Amino acid sequence: MSDQPRRRPSPATAAPEVVALTAAGTALGRRVVQRLRADPDVARVVRLGAADLRGDVKRRLDGVDAVLHLASTALPVDAAPTRLLLDAAGATGVRSLVVVSSALVYGAAPDNAVPLTEQAPLAVTPELEPAVVLAEVERLAALLRHARPAMAVAVLRPAVPVAEDELGWLARMLAAVRNTPVGDADPPGQFVHLDDLAAAVTLAQREHLDGAYNVAPDGWIPGEDLRALAGGPRLRLPGHLAEQLTAWRWQAGLSPTPPGLLPHTEHPWVVASDKLRAVGWVPTHSNQEAFVAGHRPAPWATVSPRRRQELALSLSGLGLLGAGASVVALVRGAARRARPH
């Protein structure tokens, strides 16, 4: 995949566009709608709800020029509505499509480039269902691009989206395991403010961008700096114990974090956005500013580093004991269920 930005040519006498949008009621969707309404080159905004994507989608896309599919905005991520939407877009007069995916599709691995460009292969973690589904969404978008060469199909891969009014599902999952990291060191982190992600979505629509584009501010937050921003005592667990504990908490409904996300707390997966910047995208929030905007200060923020260390050391014994007890309880419960009655 080329690392050079590509635009599909617009009609010589282009009239203001009719733009259809999914997930308009989400924090990202509201920001995109606001930007579209302020654009004199947008004649009308069509909101596509969940019911629309289960009904006659072709009818809803009648007269629509551009479709903005905010696929990764909310859980559950589902490829079935995307398939219906893209089939309808390919069968009507839609000229451009923008799909919001996630940088999760690159996967997290110890040998990942830092940062990853759009030329990096997709390597989703099989146990992380949202990433698997988003990779399928991207595959469907690629099929549409192949079938409709004249259509502009842009896929956006943002870092962790956050905002003052919305700590998205990915940020919530990562926050839930931030104080029990895996491995010997913390990977760098990246956060993109929803204002800047909305600007990327409307830029892709306005410029009829084609291809994949990473979306993240310049650079990243080093692991140790991210730890300082998050605050709180940290209990570093061996990998196998962290996996067992995370799986048990996930199955018991005590945590929003599936075990498949753990590699993303251990290995790097930060991205470069040079390609998007080359077509005029300029983020207004740095990684640090986006993180602070989306995360409330923890109670530990006012505790001195020495006191945090003391608390972490005192809690580590209790945490390991509790983790061990949780795993033992899980094993015993499984044994009881397997015992014949």
Comma- or semicolon-separated keywords:
341 residues; alpha/beta; Rossmann fold; 3-stranded mixed sheet
Q: Number of folding domains?
A: 1
Tally of helical segments = 11
CATH homolog superfamily: NAD(P)-binding Rossmann-like Domain
Overall radius of gyration: 22 Å
- The shape, in one word, is globular
Q: Give the DSSP E fraction (strand runs of 2 or more residues).
A: 5-15%
Strand numbers in spatial order across the main sheet: 1-10-6-5-4-2-3
End-to-end span in angstroms?
59 Å
Question: Largest sheet, described in full?
Answer: 7 strands, mixed
Structural overview:
The protein is of the alpha/beta class and 341 residues long. The protein has one domain: 3-Layer(aba) Sandwich (Rossmann fold). Helix content is 40%, strand content 14%. It has eleven helices and ten strands. The chain has a seven-stranded mixed sheet, with helices on both faces. Strands 8-7-9 form a three-stranded mixed sheet. α4 links the parallel β5 and β6 (152-158). The chain is globular and about 55 Å long.
List the helices and strands and how they pair.
Layout (H helix, E strand, L loop, with lengths): L5 E2 L9 E6 L4 H11 L4 E7 L8 H4 L5 E4 L9 H13 L4 E5 L28 H19 L4 E7 L1 E4 L2 E2 L1 H9 L13 E3 H13 L2 E7 L7 H8 L8 H13 L22 H4 L9 H8 L10 H34 L3
Parallel strand pairs: 2-3, 2-4, 4-5, 5-6, 6-10, 7-9
Antiparallel strand pairs: 1-10, 7-8
Helix pairs in contact: 1-6, 3-4, 8-11
